[in-house]
Amino acid sequence: MKALIDRILKDGKCYPGGILKVDKFINHQMDPNLMKDIAVEFIRRFASTKVNKILTIEASGIAPAIMMGFLMNLPVVFAKKKKPNTLDNMLATKVTSFTKQRDYDVVISRDYLCPDDHVIFIDDFLAYGNAAKGIIDLCKQSGATLEGMGFIIEKAFQDGGQYLREQGVRVESLAIIESLENCEIKIKNA
Ligand code: 5GP
């Protein structure tokens, strides 16, 4: 997606350990126009897929997911990274955080992820696929069908994308980072 790639090249910053910071337009300050264009592109790419719900994980997946839900007139549910005392009837899994280097619980209510749901999962980044693996586990536990996974940015030099595609998951990434070596952002098709 050209507008996204141009923006990453203009405003993205490399950090040690293969981390790309996009705080200026995705992860902290957000650009709603770009977010809308991102949602439109996900909708185009998943046009042949029958879905009744958009699934994401807090926090940075929520903005693109809600844009998609709004445009498609579908509900959006986000997996929570803390177990609230008030959440009954929940499904839980453990995820290792790439950026924080620790494990955390991810939970979702069985009321909002059900056996007859057909979902697309949306997130900001795909790195090693740990969050995605947690979501696959939650979908399995709930009986929901995972129709595909969409990522704003995939880092191809980390192996989450390869793992998911080998598992037969339909993966759509709007910008694919080939390398962040020497603090130079190299993007596929840029
Ligand atoms: P994974 O679970 O695929 O290993 O990592 C994906 C999650 O880690 C994303 O939800 C995102 O929040 C975070 N993440 C992974 N890599 C990066 C990165 O390079 N930059 C930022 N800002 N977040 C990242």
From TrEMBL:
Keywords: Cytoplasm, Glycosyltransferase, Membrane, Purine salvage, Transferase, Transmembrane, Transmembrane helix. The chain crosses the membrane at residues 54-78. It catalyses: XMP + diphosphate = xanthine + 5-phospho-alpha-D-ribose 1-diphosphate. Its EC number is 2.4.2.22. Xanthine binds at residues 20, 27, 155. The keyword Transferase applies. It is found in: Cytoplasm. One of its GO terms (cellular component) is cytoplasm. GO terms for biological process: purine ribonucleoside salvage; xanthine metabolic process; XMP salvage. Its main location: cytoplasm. InterPro entries: PRTase-like (IPR029057), PRTase_dom (IPR000836), Pur/Pyrimidine_PRTase (IPR050118), Xanthine_PRibTrfase (IPR010079). GO terms for molecular function: xanthine phosphoribosyltransferase activity. Pathway: Purine metabolism; XMP biosynthesis via salvage pathway; XMP from xanthine: step 1/1. CDD domains: PRTases_typeI (cd06223). It is an enzyme of class 2 (transferase). The keyword Acetylation does not apply. 5-phospho-alpha-D-ribose 1-diphosphate binds at residues 127-131. NCBIfam families: PRK09219.1, XPRTase. Homodimer. Converts the preformed base xanthine, a product of nucleic acid breakdown, to xanthosine 5'-monophosphate (XMP), so it can be reused for RNA or DNA synthesis. Belongs to the purine/pyrimidine phosphoribosyltransferase family. Xpt subfamily. HAMAP family: XPRTase. This is Xanthine phosphoribosyltransferase. It comes from Leyella stercorea DSM 18206. The gene is xpt.
